[in-house]
Design goal:
There is one protein chain. By secondary structure, the chain is α+β, with helices and mostly antiparallel strands. It has 2 domains: about 130 residues, Purple acid phosphatase-like, N-terminal (Immunoglobulin-like, Sandwich), CATH 2.60.40.380; about 120 residues, Glutaredoxin (3-Layer(aba) Sandwich). About 20% of the residues lie in helices and about 30% in strands. The protein has 6 helices and 11 strands. The chain has a 7-stranded antiparallel β-sheet with strand order 1-2-5-4-3-6-7, with no helix packed on it. Strands 9-8-10-11 form a 4-stranded mixed β-sheet. A hairpin with a 5-residue loop joins strand 10 and strand 11.
């Protein structure tokens, strides 16, 4: 996959990920921030990210202290029976911007709709998004692809990571070695220096902040791009591991169990408590 392909898929996410605490009194607009058009939302129980924007697109609504409820339903008619779920705010860039996350069970593929009810605001209009039969991205219960990734024993960290402060522990094992180690593994696909949505660095930092508390877990950072010193960003090429995992966007975080199966996946961004709960389980 070319860098330009990922950039095209992320263009909308970059705009949506800047949701923050505005209080404009007008009908809000709810927008699904998952790369659903690339098939990341599939039949089953899924983690959904939603941005709440002002109707004119000039500002964003929501925050940690602003509750929101979502109505999800099949098709485009909000009057039919559906699911009502609460959203939890998660910072994409700490204290700067964020999105709401929630969990929804989709019982069939096709076009789905949602309506958001933000505290103190009128209900949003109907927002439509796609759900596929099966996501190309490894999901919970799937076998984790055993892709080879570069390690710090072979390369200087600045050649295999665009993180400004890389943690050497995250580059000790190739991803395939970690999966086969018989230990749980957390893998982060992120490119802090080239992330279009600006969420890669903060997401990687969340994982790094928790790693010290789990000495029995492998932690692997997979830099999304190779040839990081390219003069032209368009010359960056996606690493084979991203292709093997069929990722249409970044960042992604996966928790893999001792047997090599995906036990949790997080698209786009995550709160520390989400990953901590997954590791504790």
């Amino acid at each position: 996959m070319k860098r330009s392909t990922i950039l095209a898929m992320l263009a909308m996410l970059a705009m949506l990920a800047s949701a923050c605490g505005s209080n404009a009194e007008q009908t809000p607009l709810a927008i699904v921030a998952n790369a659903h058009q690339a098939g990341t939302l599939a039949v089953g129980t899924q983690r959904v990210l939603v941005g709440i924007a002002e109707q004119d697109g000039l500002g964003f609504l929501g925050g940690e202290d602003v509750p929101v409820e979502f109505d999800f339903f099949y098709g485009d008619d909000p009057n039919q029976e559906g699911q009502t779920v609460k959203g939890s705010f998660v910072w994409t860039v700490p204290e700067v911007r964020g999105l709401y996350r929630t969990t929804v069970t989709f019982d069939r593929p096709g076009t789905w709709g949602l309506v958001a009810r933000l505290s103190g605001q009128p209900a949003s209009g109907v927002t439509l998004f796609s759900v596929v039969s099966e996501s190309p991205v490894p999901d919970v219960g799937d076998s984790a692809p055993e892709a080879v990734t570069p390690t710090g024993t072979e390369f200087a960290l600045e050649d295999i990571s665009s993180d400004s402060a890389p943690d050497p522990r995250f580059y000790e094992l190739s991803l395939d070695e970690a999966i086969r180690s018989g230990k749980p593994t957390v893998v982060v696909f992120a490119t802090p220096a080239f992330c279009t949505s600006a969420t890669c660095g903060p997401t990687l930092d969340v994982v790094k902040s928790l790693a010290g508390g789990y000495p029995g877990v492998n932690f692997v950072h997979v830099e999304v791009y190779t040839n990081l010193t390219a003069q032209n960003p368009d010359d960056l090429q996606v690493v084979p591991a991203v292709e093997a995992w069929r990722l249409p966007s970044e960042p992604w975080v996966f928790v893999i169990d001792e047997a090599g199966y995906v036990s949790e996946r997080f698209e786009g961004t995550l709160a520390p408590e989400e990953l901590q709960a997954a590791l504790d389980r």
